[in-house]
From TrEMBL:
UniProt cross-references to InterPro entries, sorted A to Z: Aldlse_KDPG_KHG, Aldolase_TIM
Upper taxonomic lineage: Bacteria, Pseudomonadati, Pseudomonadota, Gammaproteobacteria, Alteromonadales
Keyword Lyase: yes
Pfam family of the protein (one): Aldolase
Annotated pathway: Carbohydrate acid metabolism
The protein, known as: 2-dehydro-3-deoxy-6-phosphogalactonate aldolase
Source species: Catenovulum agarivorans DS-2
CDD domains named in the record: KDPG_aldolase
GO molecular function: lyase activity
Amino acid sequence: MPSSSFNVNNHLPLIAIIRGVQPDNVLEVAEVLVDAGFSLIEVPLNSPDALTSIKLLVEKYQAELGKSIYVGAGTVTTPAQAQAVIDTGANLVVTPNLNLEVLELAHQANCITFPGVVTPTEAFSAVAAGATGIKLFPISMVGLDGYKALKSVLPKDVLSFPVGGVEPTVDSMLPYLKIGANGFGLGSALYKADMSIEQISDIAKAFVKAYEQCLQQI
């Protein structure tokens, strides 16, 4: 069963955003990501036949869902979309914006949720509505200074994940981790639909290595 109880310390806190993935290769892509250490896999709804891909992931990882693996959807923008995702059995809902109806539906279904926010008002509204964490998106709009200011007023236990433009390097990740980022959402720098499985595997491993090197410097 999906579970809203999520301990970030039990997971590699990197959300794999596999936008553009197809049902005929989603399991192969997920397998190399999981092998590299990823346990949070997001299929954006603007991917081809995204709900079918999510159902395939749910079926494959059913025994691990809510324990060692979370799979679900990104770019969830309406309550109808949220319900369709919930109906697949997914346990992860990520949004590009703050929609309280979407958040409430996902929360009631015991999905972990990461709504997209930019401003303090959005961040505090997301926290009050029971979000698992907040997705700072696009982080390029917030910037390091804006993120530092936001972190200074958020409760210490609020999980925050910068998303957008993060590369598999210490230089890219470390500044945010030093401010207090709990993890990252990784999109096109990790996965593009035209990449080979070998490329995806190599990049996934590079992200894990860079993140682990960052931890040694904090």
